[in-house]
Amino acid sequence: MSNHPFTTAILRWFQENRRDLPWRQTTDPYAIWLSEVILQQTRIQQGQDYWERFMQRFPTVEALAEATEDEVLRLWQGLGYYSRARNLHAAARQVVAAGHFPDTLEGIKALKGVGDYTAAAIGSIAFNLPAAVVDGNVYRVLARHFGIDTPINTTLGKKEFTALAQELLPNDQASAFNQAMMDFGAIQCTPQSPRCLLCPLSDTCEALRSGRVGVLPVKNRTMKIQTRRLTYIYIRYRGQTAIHRRTAGDIWQGLWEPCLVEQSKESFAEWAAQYPGLLSDDNCHLVQKEVKHVLTHRILLADLYLWEPEQQPHLPSGYQWVAEASLDDYALPRLVEKLIATL
């Protein structure tokens, strides 16, 4: 067991300040795993609502495994990062095929979409395995308290912080320590306006002593923000509309959307050329222009046209007609939902 003063202080703080979250009322690895996947890119308040809906709809890993991918994506709708939902579904089937939820770090990491952090979280909280979690909260707390300026998004940084977290971990209280670090970063040592004056670690915090609270942790700039322009054509013909499922290798894999033309005005003109008179057709008009939607490394600007042809047009390859009244049965990107809602 680590008897480092930092560890003692963190555990003492946790006893008085721990967050009351529903997945902490259980040691069911399925419920804990589900919470960790949902919360990877999601705020607690929003994530809790989704977790509760998933647990109600799929109370066991077997129930999730038996669902279709469309059912899972539909329930996930609005959370973004849809690869998480697909991996969750695939991993549930792995667990069912194995006959039990894995109870070793190696076994947990073998599940689809589970990396070091998620495996450590599930392993320590569900099975009290002595594995330290290292997420954004942990990086921030350790970087500030110990004055570490190694960039957290480098290989060296990840190794350094992981080794330190593991050194501080009390082997017999792995679950409590990991949850304490998460909560301390979320409540006390926050990214903006941390509560330094009321911090139990203020006397030993290197960042506070050296005036570097606002600059730690250090993160290298990596990815350039890309702007993409999307033009959607919502075809309405006798209560039906045309949609297709997005394919692999891009955003929103597996989700459905109306006819899409991406990028330039020329592209839209080329698409419209398949339908003589479309651009001058009184039955086709622009409904929304440059609706902005922000993803992690992309800014999307979307136009929406409504086309109500007098004769049923042929559709591009991969598209199909569906009843407008049944659109709720299909998982749509949140941007597309917002656009269609304006109709």
Largest sheet: 4 strands, mixed
Helix content: 40-55%
Average residue-wise pLDDT: 91
In total, how many beta strands? 7
Task: Please indicate the percent range of residues in DSSP E strands (runs of 2 or more).
Answer: 5-15%
- Count up the helices: 14
Description:
This protein has 343 residues and is α+β, with helices and mostly antiparallel strands. It has 14 helices and seven strands. The radius of gyration is 24 Å and the shape is elongated. The relative contact order is 0.11. The model has no long low-confidence stretch (mean pLDDT 91).
Task: Write out key terms for the chains shown.
343 residues, alpha+beta, 4-stranded mixed β-sheet
Which secondary structure elements does this structure contain, and how are they paired or packed?
Elements: H1 5-17, H2 29-38, H3 44-57, H4 61-66, H5 69-76, H6 83-98, H7 105-109, H8 116-127, H9 136-146, H10 155-168, H11 174-188, H12 206-210, E1 226-235, E2 240-245, E3 256-257, E4 259-262, H13 265-272, E5 284-294, E6 298-307, E7 320-323, H14 334-341
Parallel strand pairs: 1-6
Antiparallel strand pairs: 1-4, 2-3, 2-7, 5-6
